[in-house]
Every structure is written in structure tokens, then in C-alpha cells.
Amino acid sequence: MNRISRRGLIAAVTTAAIVLSIGTSHAALLTSAGYSQNFDSMGAAGTAPPTDWAVFVGPSGTTNSTWNSSIDPAGVAAMLPAASALTAVVTPSGTNINGFNAALSTSATADRVLATSPTTVSGAALQLTLTNNTGVALGGLGLGYDTVRYTVATNTSGVATANELPGYQLFYSLNGSSWTNVPGLNPTLAAVPNTIGTTSTTASFAFFSAVAQGANFYLRWVDDNAQQTSPDQIIGLNNVSITAVPLPAALPLLLSALGGLGLVACRSRRCAALA
Ligand SMILES: [Ca+2]
Ligand SMILES: [Ca+2]
Ligand SMILES: [Ca+2]
Question: 173 C-alpha vs ligand 1 centroid, how far in Å?
């Protein structure tokens, strides 16, 4: 191969790599030491999320009334990569289907937050791709994250009206195509009120099936596009921390994980059995 054709090949490969990188994310490793992301590496002007993160949006044909009482997993599976870059701002406002790189506050502009304010379609999602690199099969996850509440949602008369589905609902996928909701993490208005502030969530959950060492899995924090307020209450994700719940040593850890879910399960008929 002569020098010119080699250069052409390198250019072609580079171009292909750039095309492939648009709208895709690269897996980060989940080790036994855990995973954390505070989004501060985006800086004040960054227009891309960290490489292991990506913004997804509902497909055309969906609307703000697609999800009014619940977010269906098939609808989450149908979401598509956002078409454009993040908007870097200090204080997010209005609607923005591609997501914001926002400051935590005007007095903490180095503390960056990945924020959403879905419009037009069913909603927006923040996706994290991880590879199980703990050396053992994974039975579940311990999770911590902050939901930053930037605005108070109001109706067309300017009266504060809570979104039908407040905050982010968490879904996970073990194959990148089908998605499972973690019902214990679906926010209530008490947990994510229609006020300005930050909600810190700490929980754990078990996967429906173990994740093998070396396998990828995916998390999506999904923000419904509310029907009755426009824009939605603008929210963002900050300070994500994830710990592995390994399968072999699983019993005590999984029991504690199930215990975390039990806080919610206790509202159901199984409460008596768990108590
Ligand atoms: Ca941050
Ligand atoms: Ca919303
Ligand atoms: Ca809705």
C-alpha cells in the first residue's frame, strides 16, 4: 500500500469512527471499587456528555400525552439518540430536547449537571453504558444520585402545577434493546416536589437476571414530557455513584437490596410477607 492510499484509508477509518461516535456512548467499567460521575468534566462550555453517557429522546409520533400515568418499557426501547449537542448554560430555561450542560447554581458554576426539559415528543432519557468488570457475575446495583430541581412547573395561567410524572424514572437493559423499570425508584411528588432544590436518592435493586463478567448493561433515567405544564419542571442528574452487588456473595447483599425495595413493596400486598 503506498503512502497516499494508506493516508486515504486512515482518513476513511477516522471519518467512520467519528460518524459512529455520534449518538453512541462508550461503556465505562464498573469495578469492585464502584463507578461515579459528577459531570464536572463537561466544564462550563462543553456540549457533549461524558463519553459513557448519551441523551435519548422519544421518536417522532410520540407526544406529551404518550406517557401520562406511567412510562412503558417499549416506549423507552423506542427512544433515539438526540440529534444535536447539549446546550451549555448556567441556569437552564425553556424547553430543550437535546439536553443541557447546566451549572448546579449561579454560585456553583463548576459543578455541572446533565439536565433535561423534554418537548414535542414523549420524553428524554439520560443513558449510562457500563461494563461489568468486577470479576464476578453481578446480581444487582447499589445506586446514589441527585435530581436537581431547577424550576417550578406552572400551567398556562401561571399557577404552579406538578408534572404528572415527577423526576426521573429509572430503567435498565441487559441487552441494549429491551428495558425494565425499577418501580421502587419511580419518584413520588413527595420525593421530587414541584419546588427548586435537590433530591438525593440512595437505593439498591436486583437485576432480573445476572450480568456476566465482561458483559455490558445500560441504565436510563427517563424524564416524561408532561402534558399539563410547558415547559416541564426542569430537572437534572448529578453525582451518580454505583456499587456492584456481586452474585456469588449475593445472599446477604441481595437481601439488603430487596430490603431497600421493600420500602416500596411494603405498600403492596406482599408487605405482610416481608415484614
Ligand atoms: Ca456535578
Ligand atoms: Ca418531566
Ligand atoms: Ca406526559
Answer: 25
